[in-house]
Amino acid sequence: MPDTTSLTVFIVAALALLLIPGPAVLYIIARSVDQGRSAGLVSVVGVGLGSMVHVGAAALGLSALLVQSAVAFTTVKYLGAAYLVYLGVRRWLDRGDDIVRANGPQRTLRSVFVQGVWVNILNPKTALFFFAFLPQFVDVDGGSVGLQILLLGTLFVTMGIITDGVYAVAAGGLGDWLRRRPKVVTAQRWFAGGIFITLGIATALSGGKE
């Protein structure tokens, strides 16, 4: 394992990065506003599990393969973008009785969890982030490099679940406030769908593999 100094620097750097809202945090906020704290917290766990897939891939060296392959990067990138746009369009088209639906979950928690997992698994930038960030704190003389990456990644994901959970609880509170006001329920649906679509388009238009 890294020494105490390196581990401390890692924790500080990880916390700074996690507190800056990124695509995963915006997804969690949208889900929390849309369906409440429970759905937001379930999304947090799903996103965390998706992150662990990338951590495992980094530990096994698969992230290196993704970085080196323009085809793999582009494929995963556009799959992720398309999935986010799909979530947004489906939210916009899922009309029904807005006021009634606002008083209960529109999606099962299991469905919300699975969406959270796939949103993060299909985000190539997550793989690239772990590939670039975690090795900076690995001690090549401190034992298995793969095991160190796995342990550091697990620590990062655990911290992420905590910070993302704070966002989910706060955004869920805002969602409760919105649901008590029927006039803004329709705007809530458009807000949630708009965030999903914006994230998808931003992912598709972001810098690709050089």
SS-derived structural category: mainly alpha
Order of helices and strands: HHHHHHHHHH
What fraction of the residues are assigned to beta strands by DSSP? under 5%
How far is the N terminus from the C terminus?
33 Å
Number of domains: 1
Low-confidence stretches: 96-105
Nearest-angstrom radius of gyration? Answer: 18 Å
Helix run count: 10
Question: Quick check: average pLDDT?
Answer: 79
Helix content: over 70%
Using the alpha-carbon principal axes, give the shape: globular
Q: Strand tally, please?
A: 0
Largest sheet: none
Q: What's the arrangement of secondary structure elements?
A:
Layout: H1 4-18, H2 23-35, H3 37-60, H4 62-68, H5 70-93, H6 98-102, H7 109-121, H8 124-133, H9 145-179, H10 185-205
Helix pairs in contact: 1-9, 2-3, 2-7, 2-9, 2-10, 3-7, 3-8, 3-9, 4-8, 5-10
Short description:
Helices cover 80% and strands 0% of the residues. The chain is mainly alpha-helical and 210 residues long. Mean pLDDT is 79; it is low at 96-105.
What does this 3D model show about the protein?
The protein is mainly alpha-helical. The protein has one domain (25-205). It is built from 10 helices and no strands. α2 (23-35) packs antiparallel against α7 (109-121), α2 (23-35) packs parallel to α9 (145-179) and α3 runs antiparallel to α9 (145-179). The longest helix has 35 residues, at 145-179. Mean pLDDT is 79; it is low at 96-105.
